[in-house]
TrEMBL record:
Compositional bias per record (Gly residues), positions renumbered to this chain: 311-322
Cellular component terms per the entry's GO annotation: RNA polymerase II, core complex
Coiled coil ranges: none
Gene3D superfamilies from the UniProt entry: DNA-directed RNA polymerase, insert domain (2.170.120.12), RNA polymerase, RBP11-like subunit (3.30.1360.10)
Top-rank lineage group of the source organism: Eukaryota
Name of the protein: DNA-directed RNA polymerase II subunit RPB3
Subcellular location: Nucleus
GO MF term list: DNA binding; DNA-directed RNA polymerase activity; protein dimerization activity
InterPro entries: DNA-dir_RNA_pol_30-40kDasu_CS, DNA-dir_RNA_pol_insert, DNA-dir_RNA_pol_RpoA/D/Rpb3, RBP11-like, RNAP_Rpo3/Rpb3/RPAC1, RNApol_insert_sf, Rpo3/RPB3_RNA_Pol_subunit
Family, per entry: Belongs to the archaeal Rpo3/eukaryotic RPB3 RNA polymerase subunit family.
UniProt keyword Repeat present: no
Length: 362
């Protein structure tokens, strides 16, 4: 039989598609591609997540930074994130505006004798106070490209989805917080990942012997073949081992946290991978000298200027590992992601009762 020209083109066959997960078979690609695709899907697709939290009142039993961290992990609707919002580093504003951020408020007080649950459903998206100034200064069509519930907590509009629990409060306790959600990718912080799980399997019969199963008496009895075995031919007992065989069929399962749909995640993941390869090719074509120039140009000139998200893991702000003494918090060097106040001066965490507004990176 003559193979058609498209015989070796990648094939995607979706086996199951639900609101938050997709299961598909990817054929005619190699293991390196499958691995790269998985990494890109997990770490390189932008979403929005709460990145800065200002506490106006917190009389709950949980400390500020505990709540800030929880707020950061709440999935927010990020559909069309690529075009609907810009990175703050690409914006002309100083730290946040409606073009590069979404503002949310949490204002909850318990007034009765029962324990009250503060959940993601209490988070309200509110416009920035100085919105009209931004609209005069900024130019862009980002805001027009947002869907109705862009930046809202996932599941808030859907009674079937249980909300994310933030804290439990009792009578007289209060939580009043201003949050700023920003665009980012999971390479910087896992809270920006659109996926909760990405996995793939290949070669269910282990014909390629990429794995050596540990077993007591019979590996076949102790290692049952997965469902994906139905997709492939069972090897005969007398089959000779093929040294040159390579896997080309991969069984993927992608589960999202609801910030993006699984279709979006797959599509944008492929786009992102394509962009990366295109950049690599471009870099190779440019020649070594030009590449070096480009590289030095693109390096930040002053690594001291800490980014808005304080001490993430990088140079300059004393990332994790270095200076492990807890006393360093006062020195303004900041631990990872919970450095007190973007400005650093607003007193150390939890120390003085007169502290009014301490902002924390979620
Ligand atoms: Zn901005």
């Amino acid at each position: 039989m003559n193979a058609p020209d498209s015989f070796n083109e990648p094939i995607v066959r979706v086996r199951e598609l639900k609101k938050d997960r997709v299961n598909f078979v990817l054929e005619n690609v190699d293991l390196a591609f499958a691995n790269s695709f998985r990494r890109v899907v997990m770490a390189d697709i932008p979403t929005v997540a709460i990145d800065l939290v200002e506490f106006e009142a917190n009389t709950t039993v949980l400390p500020d930074e505990y709540i800030a961290h929880r707020l950061g992990l709440i999935p927010l609707v990020s559909a069309n994130c690529e075009d609907a919002i810009r990175y703050t580093r690409d914006c002309t504003c100083l730290s946040q505006c409606s073009y590069c951020a979404v503002q949310l408020r949490l204002d909850v007080t318990c007034n009765d004798d029962n324990t009250m649950e503060v959940t993601s459903n209490h988070l309200e998206v509110v416009p920035f106070q100085d919105d009209f100034i931004h609209d005069n200064l900024e130019h862009g069509d980002e805001k027009a490209k947002r869907s109705q519930f862009f930046g809202h907590p996932v599941g808030k509009q859907d009674p079937g989805v249980p909300p994310v629990l933030i804290a439990k409060i009792r009578k007289g306790q209060e939580l009043r917080v201003r949050c700023v959600a920003k665009k980012g990718i999971a390479k910087e912080h896992a809270k920006w990942s659109p996926c909760s799980a990405v996995s793939f399997e290949y070669d269910p019969y282990n014909k390629l012997r990429h794995t050596a199963y540990w077993f007591e008496t019979d590996s076949r009895a102790e290692w049952p073949v997965s469902e994906n075995g139905k997709e492939e031919e069972e090897p005969r007992d007398d089959e000779v081992f093929d040294f040159n065989a390579a896997p080309n069929k991969f069984y993927f399962e992608i589960e999202t946290d609801g910030s993006l749909s699984p279709e979006d995640v797959v599509e944008r993941g492929l786009n992102e991978l394509q962009n990366k390869l295109a950049n690599l090719l471009l870099g190779l074509k440019a020649g070594p000298d030009e590449m070096l120039e480009d590289w030095t140009d693109s390096q930040p000139q002053a690594p001291v200027a800490a980014p808005t998200n304080g001490g993430s893991w990088g140079e300059g702000t004393g990332g994790w590992g270095r200076g492990s003494s807890p006393a360093r918090t006062g020195a303004g060097s900041g631990g990872w992601n919970t450095s007190p106040g973007a400005g650093g001066s607003s007193s150390a965490w939890g120390a003085s009762p007169e502290r009014q507004i301490g902002s924390w990176n979620a």
